[in-house]
């Protein structure tokens, strides 16, 4: 059978890793795909003579469009990242009738609807397993392995940088800024860490997971996003005292009122398996109506883990080359005409439990004022922890765990508490999820 020719866009960490995997595992990949797969053309800038393994006989150019327009290329693999020119390159590849594999979560989250529509019209496949959770085959698990199930919710630790920072803060008692600097030195975080620590990277991934779980269009702009830069060491310590761990969690859930999509710091009971996912590792917990809970764990980034997912997509696309386009696995799990524009809930409509930390003047009646406001907003308290004032200070730290309540009610309560004369500064609020099977 004629070999499948790959055009590779980008020879950085993931691109170089992909070329290496295709070359070193060529025999076993061919046995699985049913034909040989080879990289024949690649685009990279500033590469010089330092070629990655597996590209020794590959035609390398700085013009990515030359690869996309090469008539001998069957599958274009986009690994340059970002919005532009990645979007234009992918759309051109589709227009040329070429299949596409990408690891670009921002591209899929923001432009996936138009990309998939174009691919559908041209009868080509766009595969994107590596866009979420690196080497963990989570897209395939939801789209194919759980296709008999109604997904109820998904909760994921889907950014390794944020997880590394929170793990170090908990295990070594370090401050956020200190650990962030180390993460940058180790290459886990970029010089501008905004995408990681403010939750944008995780929001891109959650948007994709939500679409394939619930059959809704990709709607990145509707993901509630909150980062971890304001998490303090004392919150990490107090959470531990209460039997919880703080994780930067992506959560999407189907409710009777609509679909939740949110990324924010979250207290999770320390007995949950996902609460014990540490360092740069990723994990996704899925609750399905027939299977129940299932946890998917592994490396969420890096050359080999991500290349593993990219090559798996290449194999899948190769297998589908002779398949009737109408009988292929749909891009977003549901048939294109079955994608429903279900309402996405605003954060104010979401119900969850809360951890509250506030500083109050240590005098009689203050706690009564706080509990009065809590009661007026129909909020039930699950636990209260009060710390004695530090010597020389007049304020005490109060920590409360609430039962589940609508976010809008909690907002009203926090606003009223902050207006009390004897409350110092702002109330710290972190959401709490039990992630139980009930």
Characterise this structure:
With 438 residues, the protein is of the alpha/beta class. It folds into three domains: 4-135 and 304-338, Rossmann fold (3-Layer(aba) Sandwich); 144-299, Dihydrodipicolinate Reductase, domain 2; 351-432, ACT domain (Alpha-Beta Plaits). The chain has 14 helices and 17 strands. The strands form two sheets. Strands 7, 8, 9, 10, 11, 12, 13, 14, 15, 16 and 17 form an eleven-stranded mixed beta sheet that branches. A six-stranded parallel beta sheet has the order 3-2-1-4-5-6, with helices on both faces. It starts with a strand and ends in a 6-residue tail after the last strand. The mean pLDDT is 94.
Query: How many structural domains are formed by the residues?
Result: 3
Shape category: elongated
CATH superfamily of the largest domain: NAD(P)-binding Rossmann-like Domain
Task: Compute the CA-based radius of gyration.
Answer: 24 Å
Proportion of helical residues: 25-40%
Beta-strand share of residues: 25-35%
Question: Helical region count?
Answer: 14
Average pLDDT reading = 94
Number of strands: 17
Assigned CATH architecture of the largest domain: 3-Layer(aba) Sandwich
Low-confidence segments, given as residue ranges, are: none
* Largest sheet geometry: 11 strands, mixed
CATH fold description of the largest domain: Rossmann fold
Report the CATH C-level class of the largest domain.
Alpha Beta
- The SS-based structural class is alpha/beta
Distance between the termini: 52 Å
Give a brief outline of the structure.
The protein is an alpha/beta fold and 438 residues long. Helix content is 35%, strand content 26%.
């Amino acid at each position: 059978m004629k070999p499948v020719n790959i055009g590779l866009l980008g020879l950085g960490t993931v691109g170089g890793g992909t070329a290496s995997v295709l070359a070193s595992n060529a025999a076993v990949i061919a046995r699985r795909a049913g034909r040989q797969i080879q990289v024949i053309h690649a685009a990279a800038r500033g590469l010089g003579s330092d070629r990655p393994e597996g590209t020794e006989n590959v035609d390398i150019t700085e013009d990515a469009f030359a690869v996309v327009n090469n008539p001998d290329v069957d599958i274009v693999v986009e690994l340059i990242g970002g919005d532009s020119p990645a979007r234009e390159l992918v759309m051109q590849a589709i227009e040329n009738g070429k299949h596409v594999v990408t690891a670009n979560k921002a591209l899929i989250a923001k432009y996936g609807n138009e990309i998939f529509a174009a691919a559908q019209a041209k009868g080509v496949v766009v595969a994107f397993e590596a866009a979420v959770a690196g080497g963990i085959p989570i897209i395939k698990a939801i789209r194919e392995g759980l296709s008999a199930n109604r997904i109820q919710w998904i909760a994921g630790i889907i950014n390794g940088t944020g997880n590394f920072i929170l793990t170090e803060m908990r295990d070594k008692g370090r401050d956020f800024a200190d650990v962030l600097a180390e993460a940058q030195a180790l290459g886990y975080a970029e010089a501008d860490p905004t995408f990681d620590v403010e939750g944008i990277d995780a929001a891109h991934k959650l948007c994709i997971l939500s679409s394939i779980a619930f059959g809704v269009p990709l709607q990145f702009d509707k993901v509630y996003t909150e980062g971890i830069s304001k998490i303090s060491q004392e919150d990490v310590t107090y959470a531990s005292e209460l039997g919880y761990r703080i994780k930067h969690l992506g959560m999407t859930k189907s409710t009777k009122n609509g679909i939740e999509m949110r990324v924010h710091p979250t207290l999770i009971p320390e007995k949950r398996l996902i609460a014990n996912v540490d360092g740069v590792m990723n994990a996704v917990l899925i609750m399905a109506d027939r299977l129940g809970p299932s946890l998917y764990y592994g490396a969420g980034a890096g050359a080999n883990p991500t290349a593993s997912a990219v090559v798996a997509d290449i194999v899948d696309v190769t297998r589908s080359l002779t398949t009737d386009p109408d009988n292929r696995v749909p891009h977003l799990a549901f048939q294109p005409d079955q994608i429903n524009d279900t309402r996405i809930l605003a954060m104010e409509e979401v119900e969850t439990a809360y951890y509250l930390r506030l500083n109050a003047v240590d005098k009689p009646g203050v706690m009564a004022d706080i509990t009065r406001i809590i009661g007026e907003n129909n909020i039930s308290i699950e636990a209260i922890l009060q710390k004695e004032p530090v010597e020389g200070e007049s304020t005490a730290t109060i920590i409360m765990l609430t039962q589940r309540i609508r976010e809008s009610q909690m907002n009203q309560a926090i606003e009223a508490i902050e207006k009390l004369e004897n409350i110092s500064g702002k109330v710290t609020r972190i959401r709490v999820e039990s992630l139980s099977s009930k």
